Amino acid sequence: AQTVTQSQPEMSVQEAETVTLSCTYDTSENNYYLFWYKQPPSRQMILVIRQEAYKQQNATENRFSVNFQKAAKSFSLKISDSQLGDTAMYFCAFIPSGSARQLTFGSGTQLTVLP
Amino acid sequence: GAGVSQTPSNKVTEKGKYVELRCDPISGHTALYWYRQSLGQGPEFLIYFQGTGAADDSGLPNDRFFAVRPEGSVSTLKIQRTERGDSAVYLCASSGGTGSDTQYFGPGTRLTVL
């Protein structure tokens, strides 16, 4: 079974600054995918970024980037130039490649961007 | 194109009643998933469809929960004899259907059982 741990229930950052959200996971799988999803108060779960475990290069998507450490089973999200619209709950999620299909989510980090 | 849609947006019912929650996936997506999200927690897997068949229903909590996808597109999650503990946001997601595909989520249905 897989587990995903987000140890920061809440974080805040000043507008325009940089913040890093932590995520660790536990799995015996060698091939898998990791995701960060954002969930604002509207409830819509929005994909932020995706990382394929077999790729050494860290994924980036505009102001969002990850630090993927496969050996340490760590997958942190860095948000640069934080904007008020980044305020949301952020979930880290894991899915093994192959036959399994369900996403396993962490408990989330509530990020508040302060003006 | 249109994203995943879910209806109703909110549903309030009384304990013991039957409810149906509907999910309309992204056109062409063969895989459809249901998750349940309790307040302050991450979503938890309920059931996954590949086409019309339930490929994995290991997350359904008990036999009061059932889901169908008769034509391989729209899915309905059915809950019989609702209990207060069933109150949660029910999220639906769809993907292209292979193990690497990203799941795209709908806005969810907030179910409240009084």
Overview of this protein structure:
The complex is a heterodimer of chains A (115) and B (114). With 115 residues, chain A is mainly beta. Helices cover 0% and strands 52% of the residues of chain A. In chain A, the strands form 3 sheets. In chain A, strands 2, 5, 6, 10, 11 and 12 form a 6-stranded mixed β-sheet that branches. A 4-stranded antiparallel β-sheet of chain A has the order 3-9-8-7, with no helix packed on it. In chain A, strands 1-4 form a two-stranded antiparallel sheet. Chain A is globular. Chain A starts with a strand and ends with a strand. The model of chain A has no long low-confidence stretch (mean pLDDT 93). Chain B has 114 residues and is mostly beta strands. In chain B, strand 4 and strand 5 form a beta hairpin. Chain B starts with a strand and ends with a strand. Chain B has no helices and 11 strands. Chain B is globular, with a radius of gyration of 13 Å. The relative contact order of chain B is 0.33. The model of chain B has no long low-confidence stretch (mean pLDDT 93). Helices cover 0% and strands 48% of the residues of chain B.
